[in-house]
Amino acid sequence: MTEPNQFSSQTFVYPQPHQANQVDDYHGTQVADPYRWLEDPDSDETKAWIEAENKLTFGLLETIPARDRLKQRLTQLWNYEKYGIPFKQGERYFYFKNDGLQNQSVLYTLKALEDEPVVLLDPNTLSEDGTVALSGLSISEDGQHLAYGLSTSGSDWQEWKVRAVETGTDTDDRVQWVKFSGASWTHDGKGFFYSRYDEPDEKSKLEAVNYYQKLYYHRLGTPQSDDTLIYERPDQKDWGFGGGVSEDGRFLIISVWLGTDPRNLVFYKDLTIANAPIVELISTFEASYSFIDNDGDRFWFSTDLEAPRSRVVAIDTTNPDRAHWQEVIPQAAETLEGVGILNNQFVASYLKDAHSQVKLFDLNGTPIRDVEFPGLGSVGGFGGKRYDTETFYSFTSFTTPATIYRYDLVKNESHVFRQPNVDFNPDDYETKQVFYSSKDGTQIPMFIVHKKGLVLDGTNPTFLYGYGGFGVSLTPSFSVSTLVWLEMGGILAEPSLRGGGEYGEDWHQAGTKLKKQNVFDDFIAAAEWLIDHKYTSPQKLAIAGGSNGGLLVGACMTQRPELFGAALPAVGVMDMLRFHKFTIGWAWISEYGTPENADEFKALYAYSPLHNLKAGTAYPATLITTADHDDRVVPAHSFKFAAALQAAHKGDAPVMIRIETKAGHGAGKPTAKIIEESADKWAFLVKVLAIES
């Protein structure tokens, strides 16, 4: 039985942006784009529209009594010490720590774990509002210098600087226009490799397309204009380059990437030989290869070549023909996510039904043992050098804040290094994993988290969260924001949709290009399962996701608007016909396809959220979120979708957009902004799902 609509007596007067007569021809199909002008975020008309939309949205949010209380509880819970995983370089340890409510985590260093840590870099001092974030770091082999990248207001653009570790003072080194790159030091500590783009036009730097990345070497004490160009490909505008120095310091390993395609090339350069050529070891885009380590000329890689769940192979670079490759660790039933070498053993991280396993092997690939963890959860860490006998890792689950362990590889013993103290009782909650059938019969796993003693009567407010793309795996993780939802009696449901990496590359490919509809079918089937099993009802069900997950929400709410009570698409890819025309959007063609291909256009047009809104339809209550400095998924996606949704929507439920300022795609967002956005999100759901709070 449908509950009476609580908004029937409330009228929302949406802004009425003008509709331009813009029509494009795609393979004979005429497609209108009346809000094309919203693609310019700096025009006076766009700025006026943003102001009007935020006024409407915050006008509603400010009337919700629960909003202040939610913000207080979020702030209270967020205020606990958060530790990053320690790592060692030279004779020093390094780790991040946040005292609780700091906008950005602080980097500390110490020579022994029992010493008093010293602040090495505090990003909170770089801006008053916390919108300058540390977005990359690399420490020289001797531990004496820190190269670090800074991003402003959430932009992907980075400026790299160098700091002397002993004194905590910066050198004069500056490296600009870096994007999608780390830094890797030569072992003499005299400089580092990095990748950059040409300097963009200042006015269009947040929208302009990024092509022709180049790999450089920066020598300390010299201006960037003197940096040595290591590699470029003027004939391949889409290629990007990741340069990393091998642990023995001998080789520069160059991973050549093509957008978000998991397949890559591998080149290398012998750094011990003057003017050594760059050797193309793997020169065709047919599989993914991740360099692990080397024994002289013998290179180890993890790869999904002929193994969609990945395996480990050895390549002798003096005899590199594939016929001579050796399989070291064969493909397993679980998905191999990453491999390192510690204590002269392979440490291999796997996913089994979306939770972590770690297995040890000798260098011949013979299994040694599994590492034991406290339960089903997600594990990160296990970094270090080849002969290290200790390492650190984190363990987290939906109801376990990230706990840092110190692991002795010789004794096979884990000891708690840092355990956070959060103001809640994890024993009050339970997590289960179920499997359900998607539209085509594929079995999809889903985590469900809620308070113990839940009554399955179809009335529980439920937050269904998904991603389903780019080979990204959603695994159990702790979130203060989610905890507040659970405290209110809400359910969290998180399915492992196709398009992700939970079951390897075949699972990923099953949700790409012409098969992208599988992802939406998986998510819709999750909603139907939750309703059929009396966890919730359409009136109490909210769907959410960010970026590619925002696309997921947009597609599902346009395909099945009656199935959901609320939709929260965040920084979503909403215009599937123009996504490739901005910043790094072209890089997603390997995932989505391109509208320039007739068959792929047909598939994209069939689900593109912007193009599947139907006039006169009652859509679920919607809170779109985006940010003015998002140069990953430019805000035009959300702007155009919001304008078109408000024009098409004929129901009483609010359909609104919340536009954050001085923020980007999400990385580096200050704690204060995260708390505010979380409070607004939950307050909106309290209102539209009629939750008693």
Automatic annotation (TrEMBL):
Q: What is its EC number?
A: 3.4.21.26
Q: Which residues form the Peptidase S9 prolyl oligopeptidase catalytic domain?
A: 476-690
**Keyword vocabulary terms for this entry:** Hydrolase, Protease, Serine protease
Give the first-level EC class, as a single word: hydrolase
| InterPro entries noted in UniProt | AB_hydrolase_fold (IPR029058), Pept_S9_AS (IPR002471), Pept_S9A_N (IPR023302), Peptidase_S9_cat (IPR001375), Peptidase_S9A (IPR002470), Prolyl_oligopep/macrocyclase (IPR051167)
Q: Which residues form the signal peptide?
A: none
Q: Which family does it belong to?
A: Belongs to the peptidase S9A family.
Which PANTHER family does UniProt cross-reference here?
PROLYL ENDOPEPTIDASE (PTHR42881:SF2)
- Annotated protein name in UniProt: prolyl oligopeptidase
Organism of provenance: Stenomitos frigidus AS-A4
